[in-house]
Write a structure and sequence with these properties.
- The protein is mainly α.
- It contains 21 helices and no strands.
- Helix 15 runs antiparallel to helix 16, helix 19 runs antiparallel to helix 20 and helix 20 runs antiparallel to helix 21.
- The radius of gyration is 25 Å and the shape is globular.
- The N terminus is likely disordered.
Length: 419
């Protein structure tokens, strides 16, 4: 934080006067402290007392001036612990909004301050934030390294930090270690039954996480049993997000077992509930899963509608693995429409978005690449891509029947005509 100059009567200094004073002390112009949505004309009106700054404006201007939004608004200087708490709240907000790079920068700075001051709570929250941000970037090995430390030390619990366990379980599955995810969520459910037996929503949430992990491990019957057990515990009508999780899990299990009609019915119900929220990320992912299921039925027009909706929603947030998944499905659609060049470009874009550790997503991208080569008539290249897709998807256990069906279509299209 920058040095504050003394005012003869700080109580009479307005927000605008405080901003003007700090700006001049630092030798900055009004344009220097502007930013997205905050023009120099807007700054000028604030300084003249003609406009009350929004919370966003206070955060952006405070960042430019090296002071807290609270100081700009009230003139009160925060203590060291209050400053760390404010910075944590800012970083956690940016993480929720999908501003990953800025959130991670803040969390790393907080880690250093927490180590210097011995603030264990801030240290834990910063490590959690960095681990969750890494998961959203698709850096799953980093996610495991950061979050395992927090979970193993029992610094958090499934009740206080469910998203942390979800991110760690997802990272295990994406690293082709779905059995670790299964074990993690079984342990969470055991703890919930022991300590939070009356929390129906929490139990169902982790039962759905367990079903995802079992599905990723290629154990659909056990995944279905996990959901059936969760449903049996419901009393009355579950809240909307609990219903979304149950529908979503049913859709994944049905899709994995070839029950496309049931899968579509379930994911459409989840979409209907998500449309009543402002959750762009999960609504986009739901449209993407729906497109994948519809594509398996051969309805290319409906698949395209869902992919367009998913694209519009997912490009608003920084979620690299989901964008790679989207490009792979778009490539498959283009290939099945006969546009091999577009399919090839989309498959290559999916690869460019992925890291080497994203093996299941790499498998999907190879599958999309194979279908692009089929559409281009390059069947030897298609066979090589299908083989790579099979090798990678076998590590997870999902999609193999659908992949073999796509490969069968490829072989039939390559066969010479019979007379």
């Amino acid at each position: 934080m920058g040095t504050m100059s003394e005012q003869p009567d700080n109580r009479e200094e307005t927000v605008g006067e405080r901003i003007r004073r700090l700006r001049r002390e630092r030798g900055l112009s009004q344009r220097d402290i502007c930013g997205p949505g905050i023009s120099n004309a807007y700054i000028s009106r604030i300084e003249r007392g003609q406009r009350r700054p929004s919370g966003k404006a206070l955060r952006l201007v405070g960042r430019s001036l090296g002071v807290s939004p609270e100081y700009l608004e009230t003139g009160a200087v925060l203590t060291a612990s209050e400053q760390i708490e404010r910075e944590l709240a800012e970083a956690e907000l940016e993480l929720r909004l999908g501003e990953l790079s800025e959130a991670e920068r803040r969390f790393r700075a907080i880690l250093s301050k927490a180590a210097e001051s011995g603030n264990a709570d801030a240290d834990t929250r910063a490590r959690v934030g960095l681990g969750v941000a890494a998961a959203r970037r698709g850096a799953y090995r980093e996610t495991v390294e950061r979050l395992e430390r927090v979970v193993d030390k029992r610094e958090i619990s499934p009740a206080t930090h469910p998203d942390v366990y979800a991110a760690l379980g997802q990272a295990y599955s994406e690293l082709s270690e779905a059995t670790k995810a299964v074990e993690l969520f079984r342990q969470c459910l055991a703890e919930i039954e022991w300590k939070y037996a009356d929390d129906e929503v929490l139990y169902i949430r982790f039962a759905t996480y367990l079903s995802y992990a079992l599905s990723d491990a290629g154990r659909p019957a056990e995944a279905d049993a996990a959901i059936a057990g969760a449903i049996s515990r419901t009393r009355g009508q579950p809240d909307p997000y609990t219903r979304i999780r149950l529908y979503w899990s049913r859709a994944r299990i049905a899709s994995d077992t070839g029950q496309h009609r049931l899968g579509l019915d379930s994911i459409r119900r989840a979409i209907g509930l998500l449309e009543q929220t402002e959750d762009s990320l999960h609504l986009g992912r739901a449209h993407l899963l729906c497109a994948e299921i519809v594509l398996a039925t051969g309805d290319l027009d409906e698949a395209e509608e869902h992919l367009l909706l998913a694209d519009a929603l997912l490009t608003r947030v920084d979620t690299t693995p989901h964008l790679a998944y989207l490009r792979s499905e778009q490539a498959k659609l283009a290939a099945r429409r006969g546009d091999g060049e577009r399919a090839l470009a989309l498959a290559r874009e999916a690869f460019a978005l992925l890291g080497k550790e994203d093996q299941p997503e790499q498998g999907r991208a190879h599958w999309a690449l194979a279908e692009a080569h089929v559409a281009l008539g390059d069947h030897p290249a298609a066979e090589r891509a299908f083989a790579a897709a099979h090798r990678l998807l076998s590590l997870e256990g999902r999609y193999l029947p659908q992949l073999e069906e796509a490969r069968g279509r490829s072989l039939r299209s390559a066969a010479p005509p019979t007379y």
